[in-house]
């Protein structure tokens, strides 16, 4: 009779542990999805600012059409990648960051443009958005680390495997030009 109680007790403890682990996996996975949604909002904000920036710059930079087109093309590719994997999205966003950096370097050659209030406001909004993207990307990567740890560590890896949880991709910088420290000229 005692053996039956011990077996029932062990089964109850294992069932409770299974439920706790499963709930933890769901909680962390949903937090990661929420954090990704925040990244997505900031990326959309950046995509929305770029056409205004390009239009403002166009009037001043008639012979820099290639730079403006590369920014526009990179924005379009980044928007098209919105449903892609995190790695593909990070690559497209990295290319957009590189194109924006090149645009801002070219702007240094146009003192009238640098003094334009509309341009300055857009540049400030873009800078703020870039800082927000960096912050939420860090939060997302922290959540991915937490998820991946749960998905790979014992005993939660068993429950994760049962319910089909797989390791997630980090949103990381892969382009060399995005990793490079921008050069700012003081004139």
Features:
single chain, 187 residues, mainly alpha, de novo design (two linked rop proteins), 79% helix, disordered C terminus
CATH topology: de novo design (two linked rop proteins)
Task: Report low-confidence residues grouped into runs of 5 or more.
Answer: 181-187
Rg computed from alpha carbons, rounded to a whole number of angstroms? 24 Å
Largest sheet, in brief, is:
none
**CATH homologous superfamily - what is it?**
LemA-like domain
Q: Look at the structure and give the mean pLDDT.
A: 87
Characterization of this structure:
The protein is mainly alpha-helical and 187 residues long. The chain has one domain: de novo design (two linked rop proteins) (Up-down Bundle), CATH 1.20.1440. Helices cover 79% and strands 0% of the residues. It is built from 7 helices and no strands. α1 runs antiparallel to α2 and α1 runs antiparallel to α5. The longest helix is centred in the first third of the chain and has 57 residues. It is rod-shaped, with a radius of gyration of 24 Å.
Write the layout of secondary structure elements.
Elements: H1 2-58, H2 65-80, H3 86-107, H4 111-115, H5 117-152, H6 156-162, H7 176-179
